[in-house]
Automatic annotation (TrEMBL):
PROSITE patterns: KAZAL_2 (PS51465). Residues 1-36, 315-338, 676-705 are annotated as: Disordered. It is a multi-pass membrane protein. It comes from the Eukaryota. One of its GO terms (cellular component) is basolateral plasma membrane. One of its GO terms (biological process) is monoatomic ion transport. The chain crosses the membrane at residues 85-106, 113-134, 184-209, 221-249, 269-293, 368-390, 402-428, 440-460, 556-581, 593-610, 647-669. Belongs to the organo anion transporter (TC 2.A.60) family. This is Solute carrier organic anion transporter family member. Keywords: Cell membrane, Disulfide bond, Ion transport, Membrane, Transmembrane, Transmembrane helix, Transport. It comes from Propithecus coquereli.
Length: 705
C-alpha cells in the first residue's frame, strides 16, 4: 500500500470493514464468509466489555503498589526516595514505547497485541511477589536469636557485666545478606519496568479498535462506558490493599506459637505480596479473550436507542482522543482530520523518527497547548505524590493503620475525584463551553483547589516525646543520648520494639530503654496484648503497653480526608475542559499526535520525577533512621510538623503552578480573541467606511469562541 497521495483514494478502515472480505489483509476470507453464523467474538459490544474489565484489572495492579508502599519500605528497609523511584519506574518503560504506538497502530493484530501486553502485565505482577518468597521470614525483633520466639527477653533490661557491651544486631550482616537485598530491590525495579512496557498497547489499541468498528453514533458511548469503568481501577486497588494489609506478611509461613503483634504496632507488616497475586490472576483471566478477537470485524450497523442518556459521559471520553466519526463534518475526509496520524502507517520507522521531531516542535509552538500541558504537568505531579505517599502521611500524622488509611483513600478521595471528572464533562457538554469559558472553568477549579488545601497545614500535631531521640534530622541514637535510668541495662542501639508510657505520653524505642525487666501477655478472645513491667524509667514502674503512642490528632483524620477529597473534586473538574483546550489549541491535522505528545510530556515531567521529589522531601523530615548492615534503611520517626509542612507545601506549590498556567491561558485567549475581532472589523470595512467611523464605532464586538 503506497502513500495516500494522488487522485486515487484508498478505502478507509470503516469502508474496509463494511466491504467484507475482499480487502482483508493477504486476500484471505474472513470467518464470516466461511460460516454463516458469526463468531461470538465478532461483536464490538463484547470487546467493550472485555476491554473495560482488562483496563480495570490493569489499573488495579498498577495502583496496588501505591497502597502498600509504606509496607514495602518497612519490609525491605527502603527510604521514601527509593520507594518513590520504585513507584514511578513503571512509567520509564511506558514512556520509551508509547510514541511508537502511532506508527505500529494499524500494522499489527491489535487484539492480540493487547492480549500479549496484558500477559506481560500479569507476569510483572507475579514477579513483584518473588522477593517475598526468596527472602527470609520477616523478623520484627532482631535482638532475639533465630531459634527463639520473637519478643524474647533480649529486648528487656538486662544487667550489664564488666565485659559486656550494648548489643549490636549488625553482626548478622554478610556479603550474602547485602547481595540478597540488592537482588530483591533489583527484582522489584525490573517488575515495575515490565509492568510499564506491558501497559503500552492496552489503552491506545483498545480505543482505536472500538472507534473503528463501532457504529459512528455508538462510539462515544462505548468510550464513555470504558473510561467510567476503568477509572474505578485505582479505587479498587486501595480497597484491595486495605484487605491484604490486615493479614500478616508471612501468613503462608507463620512461626510456631504465632506472633504478638497487632496491626497498630509500627513493626506490623501486612501481606503486601498477596494483592499482587490476586491482581495478576485477574489480568491473566481478562487477557484470554483477546487471542480470539479478529484483526478486523464487521462494522456495527445499528445505533443504540439509549445513547443520548450517556451524552455527558461521552463528551468526557471524546476529550481523551480524536473526535469520533459521529462529530465529523460530511466534507471532512479521514486523511484531512488525522494528518500525520493517518500517514504514519505508510512511513518506515526511520521516516517516522525523522518526521516526529518536526511535528513535536510545531505542536509546542502553540502557546495554548504548551501552557495547558504545563498546567497538567503541575496537576499530575500533585496527583503522583498524593496517591503514593498519602497513605504513609495518614499513618504517621494520625496514628492510623495502613489498612485503614487505604480504606479512607479508596472510599472518600477516590470516588470524589471520579465525581469531579464526570462533573467536568457534564459542564462542558451541557453548557456548550468554548475555549474561553473552558479556561475560566479551569482557572476557578485550580483556585478553589488551592484554597481548600490551605487548612491542611494546620490539621495535625507535633511529634510526641520520644525518649533519647533528638528532633534534628540526621541525629543517630547512642548510649549518651538515652536517659540515665537505663544505664544499668544492656540495650541494643539499633533495636526497635517501641513502648508507650500512657501517663506522660512518652515513647521509648524498646522496653530496655524504658528500663523494663519483665514482660506480661494478656490473652483475650480475639487478640493478645503485651505489657512490660518493672520499668525503672516509668513512674510507678509500669505496666506500659507495647506499641507507639497514639497521636493526639487522631480525631482530625476524617475532616482532613474530607478536605482532600473536596480539593480532588474541584481539581478534577478541570480534566475535561483542559483536554478540550488542547484539542482546540493545535492544528486539526496534529490533534492525534498532540494528545500522544501530551501524555509523553506528562510522564517525563510529572509521573517519573514527582514521586522521587516527594520522597526526598519526606526523607529530610526523618529524625531517627534504622540502620541495617551499616547503611541507612527505613525511617522510624519523623518530625510531624516538618513532614506536614513539606508534604502539603509541595501540594500547594504544584497547585499554584496550575493556577498560574491557566491564568496565562485565559490571558492568551483574550488577546487572541481581541486580535481576531480587530482583524474581522478591519476586513469587513472598506477604506472610506474606516475614515468615517467614529472612535466608539471602531471597537469590535466581543467574540465568543
Amino acid at each position: 500500500m503506497g502513500p495516500r497521495i494522488g487522485p486515487v483514494q484508498m478505502p478507509d478502515k470503516e469502508t474496509k470493514a463494511m466491504m467484507g472480505t475482499e480487502d482483508t489483509p493477504g486476500g484471505k476470507a474472513s470467518p464470516d464468509s466461511q460460516d454463516s453464523r458469526p463468531s461470538v467474538f465478532h461483536n464490538i459490544k463484547l470487546f467493550v466489555l472485555c476491554h473495560s474489565l482488562l483496563q480495570l484489572a490493569q489499573l488495579m495492579i498498577s495502583g496496588y503498589l501505591k497502597s502498600s508502599i509504606s509496607t514495602v519500605e518497612k519490609r525491605f528497609g527502603l527510604s521514601s526516595q527509593t520507594s518513590g523511584l520504585l513507584a514511578s519506574f513503571n512509567e520509564v518503560g511506558n514512556t520509551a514505547l508509547i510514541v511508537f504506538v502511532s506508527y505500529f497502530g494499524s500494522r499489527v493484530h491489535r487484539p492480540r497485541m493487547i492480549g500479549c501486553g496484558a500477559v506481560l502485565v500479569s507476569l510483572a505482577g507475579l514477579l513483584m511477589t518473588v522477593p517475598h518468597f526468596i527472602s527470609e521470614p520477616y523478623r520484627y525483633d532482631h535482638t532475639s536469636p533465630e531459634d527463639m520466639p520473637q519478643d524474647f527477653k533480649a529486648s528487656l533490661c538486662l544487667p550489664t557485666t564488666p565485659t559486656q557491651t550494648p548489643a549490636i544486631s549488625n553482626g548478622s550482616c554478610s556479603s550474602y545478606t547485602e547481595a540478597r537485598h540488592l537482588t530483591v530491590v533489583g527484582i522489584l525495579f525490573l517488575a515495575q519496568t515490565l509492568l510499564g512496557v506491558g501497559t503500552v498497547p492496552i489503552q491506545p489499541f483498545g480505543i482505536s479498535y472500538i472507534d473503528d468498528f463501532a457504529h459512528n453514533s455508538n462510539s462515544p458511548l462505548y468510550l464513555g462506558i470504558l473510561f467510567a469503568l476503568t477509572i474505578t481501577g485505582p479505587v479498587t486497588a486501595y480497597g484491595l490493599g486495605s484487605l491484604m494489609l490486615r493479614l500478616y506478611v508471612d501468613i503462608d509461613r507463620m512461626p510456631e506459637g504465632g506472633i504478638s503483634l497487632t496491626t497498630k504496632d509500627p513493626r506490623w507488616v501486612g501481606a503486601w505480596w498477596l494483592g499482587f497475586l490476586i491482581a495478576a490472576g485477574l489480568v491473566a483471566l481478562a487477557a484470554t479473550p483477546y487471542f480470539f478477537f479478529p484483526r478486523e470485524m464487521p462494522k456495527e450497523k445499528h445505533e443504540l436507542h439509549f445513547r443520548r442518556k450517556f451524552s455527558a459521559i461521552a463528551s468526557s471520553a471524546v476529550s481523551k482522543g480524536r473526535k469520533p466519526p459521529s462529530e465529523r463534518s460530511p466534507g471532512e475526509s479521514p486523511e484531512k482530520q488525522d494528518g500525520l496520524a493517518q500517514v504514519a502507517p505508510d512511513l518506515t520507522v526511520i521516516q517516522f523518527i525523522k518526521v516526529f521531531p518536526r511535528v513535536l516542535l510545531r505542536t509546542l509552538r502553540h502557546p495554548i497547548f504548551l501552557l495547558v500541558v504545563l498546567a497538567q504537568v503541575c496537576t499530575s505531579s500533585l496527583v503522583a505524590g498524593l496517591t503514593i505517599f498519602l497513605p504513609k502521611f495518614l499513618e504517621r500524622q494520625f496514628s492510623v493503620t495502613a489498612s485503614y488509611a487505604n480504606l479512607l483513600i479508596g472510599s472518600i478521595s477516590g470516588p470524589m475525584a471520579i465525581l469531579g471528572m464526570v462533573a467536568g464533562g457534564v459542564l462542558v457538554k451541557c453548557l456548550h463551553l468554548g475555549p474561553m469559558r473552558c479556561s475560566i472553568l479551569c482557572l476557578l477549579g485550580a483556585l478553589f483547589s488551592l484554597l481548600l488545601g490551605l487548612p491542611l497545614f494546620f490539621m495535625g500535631c507535633s511529634t510526641h516525646q520520644i525518649a533519647g531521640i533528638l528532633h534534628q534530622p540526621g541525629t543517630q541514637p547512642g548510649p549518651g543520648l538515652f536517659p540515665g535510668c537505663m544505664e544499668p541495662c544492656s540495650c541494643a542501639s539499633d533495636d526497635f520494639n517501641p513502648v508507650c508510657d500512657p501517663s506522660t505520653h512518652v515513647e521509648y524505642i524498646t522496653p530496655c530503654h524504658a528500663g523494663c525487666a519483665s514482660r506480661v501477655v494478656q490473652e483475650t478472645l480475639d487478640k493478645s496484648q503485651v505489657f512490660y513491667t518493672n520499668c525503672s524509667c516509668v513512674v510507678g514502674g509500669g505496666p506500659v503497653p507495647a506499641g507507639s503512642c497514639d497521636s493526639a490528632c487522631s480525631h482530625l483524620v476524617l475532616p482532613f480526608m474530607f478536605l482532600v477529597g473536596l480539593g480532588a473534586t474541584v481539581a478534577c473538574v478541570t480534566n475535561t475542559p483542559s483536554f478540550m483546550l488542547i484539542l482546540r489549541g493545535v492544528k486539526k491535522e496534529d490533534k492525534t499526535l498532540a494528545v500522544g505528545i501530551q501524555f509523553m510530556l506528562l510522564r517525563v515531567l510529572a509521573w517519573i520525577p514527582s514521586p522521587v521529589i516527594h520522597g526526598s522531601a519526606i526523607d529530610t523530615t526523618c529524625v531517627h533512621w534504622a540502620q541495617r548492615c551499616g547503611r541507612r534503611a527505613v525511617c522510624r520517626y519523623y518530625d510531624h510538623d516538618l513532614f506536614r509542612n513539606r508534604f502539603i507545601g509541595l501540594q500547594s506549590f504544584f497547585k499554584t503552578g496550575t493556577l498560574v498556567c491557566f491564568a496565562l491561558v485565559l490571558a492568551v485567549l483574550r488577546q487572541q480573541d481581541k486580535e481576531a475581532g480587530t482583524k474581522a472589523t478591519a476586513c469587513s470595512s472598506g477604506p472610506e467606511q474606516q475614515l468615517l467611523m467614529s472612535g466608539p464605532e471602531k471597537k469590535p464586538e466581543d467574540s465568543r469562541v
